[in-house]
Amino acid sequence: MSPQDESTPDPLEDSDACKAWTSHSAVDTLRRFLSSANLASDHPLVYSPTTIRSLYYCAESRNQLAMLDSRMLTLLMTLFGSLSISPRTSIVYKHPLASRFLDVCARRNHWAFVLKVGRYKAESGMTLQDSDRFWLMRAELANVRARSPLGPLSRHAYSAILRARTHYHIIRRHSRHPEVHAHYLETLLATLDPRLLDFAACDLSFLLRNHHECHPRLQRLLYRLVIQHGGDLSNRSQEAILAALWTRACQTAGGTSNLVPENGLSHITCHDCILDATAIARSLSTTLFGFAGRLPNDESVNSLGYLFSVFSPAYSLPLRWNSLVLFSIFNASDILHFNGPHWTSDHTIPQVTSCWKVIFGLATVEKFVSEEPSLEFATQSTPMEGVLETTRTLYQLWLPIIKPRLVSRDLACAITTSLLRIACILVDVTLFYDCQDLYRTENSLEGPPTSAQKHLTAQYIAATMCFQGPRPNAVLTTLEGFSLDTEQQHQVLASAVEALAPTDASLAYTIYSIAQGKGTELDPGATYALAMSFARRGAFREAVLFLNDGRFSLEKRAIVVSAIAHSLRENPRIRHPRSVFVAIGNELAALYHSHVPPEHFRGHLEQLFVVLAQHGRGSQLFPVVLSIFKRLPNFFQPGFFVRYCHMLVRHRQFSTASKLLNAITSIHPQIARSLCIFTDRIAMRTKAFRVFKRITPLRGPTSLRLSSRLRCRPLAGPPLDFSLQELLKSGRVLAAKRIFACAAATVSPRQCTVLGNIILHGVSRQPVSRNGRRVRKVLALLEALVKDHGFRPDRVTANILVKAMINWRSAVDSLRLRELFDQFIRGGHPAAGYSPLRPPFDTRRTHFSGSPGFSKLPPFISFEKHTRPLFKMFIKAFYLCNDVEAARKVVGILKVEGRKSAIAKEVRQKARLRGKVKAGQRNAIPLDATVSSID
What we know:
- By secondary structure, the chain is mainly α.
- Among the domains are: 192-370, no CATH class; 446-522; 700-792; 810-935, no CATH class.
- It has 44 helices and no strands.
- Helix 16 packs antiparallel against helix 18 (381-402), helix 31 runs parallel beside helix 33 (669-685) and helix 40 packs parallel to helix 42 (863-880).
- The two termini are 50 Å apart.
- The model is unreliable at 1-23, 266-272, 292-302, 373-379, 849-854 and 930-935 (pLDDT under 50).
């Protein structure tokens, strides 16, 4: 057996492989494949998985597996394990040659072979490596899913999970890759077995205690376990998870004493990253699990560390578990069904637990209401009532904490900010006035304003404008009551604009105008939020005003343009002033003239180019399209060029359309050819004759070589037919005529007719400005073929001529079509209940000028080759002429003749079958003769 190249699959199967090798060649080939030199080679030996398994089985049948050492068996298990999972999965134990096998074979499961190799390695007394145990664990878990996909666990499946758990417990301390742990835990959760759920809880608690960073995938599994399966866990499992979280909290804070300060919650202060309940909840989550792009600063961790005391063993298990449930519901990426006891208030809730509940409850409500647009959410009475009731309950729980001033000023401002934001989204006037009292209480306290207080003032201004309308004087009064410092007032206004922009762009623009009236420029972040709000709502006139802001980065300008394109795509019928598209065109030319846009922006960008071409900006943006097309020829979809060219032609931008056709000819020749015909027709109607000179002929490299090769090496049969078709598709009519002239003298008359029909059909499809000219060209070519080369027209020739004449609509109207159809019926075509003496339309005999002599055609008529295509052409032509009655009559005739043809075809098949049976009986040898010959 010779090794194969990376892209060449090995055709050997198991049985063939066993026969092909001698007693020592199979194991030697396998050792050579698994050697270190082969793995390190730039061009390694690569065999198909079937061949490798055959090598292993051959070595096993001859008791030669002892020649494979521990490293080779590990590589074998790793290779087949890597081939059994998705190639997109990133695992540290993957085989280096696994990616090369993707071109050799399709992905399939090889877990049975992995278990076989692993069992042999263990029985041989070899030490199992971590990678061996990982692939054995994956193989056992795959067997579990195969044995019990939906129903309860069988005894064998439960045993497989126990074996997988044994391997997992050995490697879990060494490996921190999420794929090692996640697949095992997901399998346990999918079983819904209470025993296995307790196993998952214990294993998760081990990871939380021993791994400093908890991967987001493992966090999602923890949230799923707590929310969906928390009610099925035993008290011991719940205690294990809570103890692990308490251990992490103590490690984060630097000790238990830092989590239980003497001054309670009043020391908690908010910083720049902690301005509302959502920010506090995110900071707590990031601090606890220690896995994020940027961790909070040390001051933030220390100030919020006391809240982690909700996991302290000093509190009861139900209180701590409910705190974890709130924590999990907020951090879960999707809405999960909660399975467990609800929060009960029959007993006294500790102060820190109440604060924890308010923070994560409000953060969850904000997360829920921010996913729904305010107008759509307000129309859903049932969800809104539930959210309102939850928010008011949290507000009532917050009052006993805020009134005695048991918390710091910053934390009180952050909670009030979230309450105001929820009141604006839910349009709850009662909650707004309650929060107004809280705001006045916080604003009356002495001391320098903090970031949390600035954020609260901005949210209060936004809420006031939502409930009381745009009142500039009230805004100025609130600003003066907050601070007389101009810089701080500007920061508050910028925060108010950012708060109002997602929900009400007009009110946000009012605050922006107030800031402009005070003679100041807001932060680029506030201006960007306002521009995005206008762009998403279709207010392009206001959105393009912000594109000229020099403080916007290139990325932000591209995102604003993308939002405008998305809005145009969602609402294509809304009309906008021309000045808007001028500004958008200038911005696109500045953004993408020198670099390629991102891949995800392709659909929006294509729509934007088409819309701008509709508004006369095609010539301005064509250099941008050409620049992107030259850098990435496959960036635009082929359908985009069709839509773009149609829009350019319809709006009389022929120069740009011709440049587009010349640019895409090399990449999309078929599309360019069809668009060239369309452009020529529209240009002739509008008398734009210079367009023809700007469009180059669409000739591919194949057609340019065909004529010279055919002159040196003449062809016959199907290759000659294909060559003529390729020449005609490329517009090389003269070359096709030359090839036909050379071949006409050497082929049979029947083949000459076939080649002539190919040329006639190709000429009838050539792009010309007028259909009358096409008819005259086809008739002149037919006359030349008959006169010079002895061409004999047949029924296919007649169909080609009829198709060319039907397309000449200025000369062939509905009456002429009826006369022409009756003439074909008189010529011998079947017509159901009609006859040549009584045609369907009963028109008089007419002779068209220049029409072919249909009476000289061969008498044989095939329904499939001649009648059906002809009648379909007439049906389409009648519909285009708005002669529905004639079209329906031809459809009826076609149906009747189609049934007759099907019956006749079936009769012929049965007769042919009977003839074969009779022939077999005549040629059969009699039985007595056979017996006598044997004797």
